[in-house]
Amino acid sequence: MSEPAIFFSEVNERQGMFHRRAFLMGGLAATGLLALGGRLAQLQLVEARRYQKLSAGNQFNYRLTPPPRGAIYDRNGVVLASNRPNFRLLVTKDTGFDASATLDELALLVPIDPARRGRLLKDLAHAPKKAPVAVMEDMTWEEFSRVNIRAPELPGVTADMGEVRVYPFGGAFAHVIGYVAKVSDRDLDKAKDDPTQDQALLHHPGFRIGKLGVEKAFDGPLRGHAGANKAEVDAQGRTVRLDPEGDIPAKPGADIRLTLDADIQNRALEVMGDESGAIVVMDCRNGDLLAMASAPSFDANRFVKGLSGPEYRALAEYERKPLLDKVMTGTYPPGSTFKPTVAMAALTAGVDPTERVLCTGGWAFGGRVWHCHKKGGHGVQDMHAAIKNSCDVYFYQMALRIGPDPIAAAAKAFGYGGTFDIGIPGQKKGLVGSRDWKKTAFKRDPVWHPGDSVPYGIGQGYINVNALQLAVMTARLANGKKALNPRLVKSVGGVEQPHGDAVPDLPFSQAHLEIVRAGMAAVANDPTGGAFKQSQLGLGDVKMAGKTGTAQVRQYAAGASRSNQGIAWRLKDHNLFIAFAPYDDPRYALSVIIEHGGQFGSSAAAPRAREVMRVALLKDPEIRARIERPTPLPDAPDEGEGDVGAADALGIEGEG
What we know:
The radius of gyration is 38 Å and the shape is elongated. The N and C termini lie far apart (187 Å). The longest helix has 39 residues, at 8-46. The chain has 24 helices and 23 strands. Helices cover 38% and strands 18% of the residues. It is α+β, with helices and mostly antiparallel strands and 656 residues long. The protein has two domains: 61-258, Penicillin-binding protein 2a (Domain 2) (Alpha-Beta Complex); 262-559 and 567-628, Beta-lactamase, CATH 3.40.710. Strands 2, 3, 4, 5, 10, 19 and 20 form a seven-stranded mixed sheet that branches. It is a single-pass membrane protein. InterPro entries: Beta-lactam/transpept, Beta-lactam/transpept-like, PBP_dimer, PBP_dimer_sf, PCN-bd_Tpept, Penicillin-binding_protein_2, TAT_signal. This is Penicillin-binding protein 2.
């Protein structure tokens, strides 16, 4: 029997295969260990901070805090818009959140009526995850305490203290300052693609944006920049404790100071009473607007909380339109307040101011009789008397003689037919008729007819203005040199805004301006003037110059009564008045429009202008000192002149 043979070649081959596999496995293991070590080194050395932040992010949560909105002040530092504390109840939707059950629990702690409950369910359904929804604002301290005690038992419920906008004067500044309100879906859609907008802030329930006036125009500077509160949370995201040291402070918005004067503005709205219209007061020296009152107004504080549907409809459907800003948006025929402008146009066109026109109460032209407001007429009138008496016949003929273009040029130089950069939107240009304008506006009848000029001369027809334009015109006329622009915003964040007197000169002769101003002075100070009784300020030698106006809103049939008694409010005439004072050193100009007042400018608008002007003058230290200055004693006659001595002239009894 033969012995088994051993083949060493096979052994060597197996051993070599084993070694190769061992080296391969060892290499793979070494590579894996090296990669693992490198990755551990990267995690522990290179990316340690990143993962520390991620870990802290799981442990801590930052809750966005809206910045305090900048305050708005008047020219003297009186607060017109500020912020006040607001106790809020917030609910945050999260995984497994039962909105209906949560609201049932909250209804045991705070009042939630069925209508509000329905709105809240809709808001919670549409709200993004972890975006808080405001269930209630302006909670009492008792309600706030009850919710905070039960908050740990109510998932997603928090009660905190935020800020809400407040307007101390309610409706006095509502149209010019505006108001803030919740961010609407339309606002979110508009801001969605805007990289400058803070999307998280826009979704915060306590955040409000400007919706009108200064609040809207300067929403960016007023907003500021959001901050955050640091809080430690558990695995479910519930707050365990606050960490005030890690808070990121919010940057408050910039404060804005306006040129308005709270006392003058409040007095303007007060004297309007139940009437509809506007009052504007402007500084004749630098263009600062001291009052921009539109009546009737509305309480801006109601809009901050949000109006119900019936409340908003009541405001929107009221015929006197409290939501309409009648200072800038409402336009009206200026009536006889346009006559100083027509007079300036006539003087510039070469009309002799001493030329006389006979007014018999009517003037026949174009197959009809154009009536004067005074039955029987004013008699013979030159320009001074025509302005003083507001003679329609005189200005009918002057307008017909010079045509529309010189009148339009003077009107535009005084500020009609355009808008002013006062920082807030909403101005309407109105209308200043001319031959070129009619070519564009009336394709079927592009020719300016002589009959178009006749009513144009008394502020009717193709002419519409707003109260701001009337005040600018009066201020420019009173200044006599500068084509002043109005200024509303005095400073933003402490940075002074441009003044309104950095403008070119008026294109009028000083002699012509003085003729027109003298006529306006006679309106208010001549006993036969159109508004003498209603224009007496009772402030010593400080006098006012003015011009009345009555603007028709309906056509009168030939021979029909022009009485406004017993007709619908919307068909009554408008009443207007423009004025500046003191006449000998103009400082303040104003315009008053009483919409559908149904009286005359002298009876409806002038008394209101007088009361507002008195406040403006009495607040001026220099004018007040002038008023309070003692009247100088009469000069004593020289010795030997006459038989009465100085003591007798003063009514002082002698000694013996």
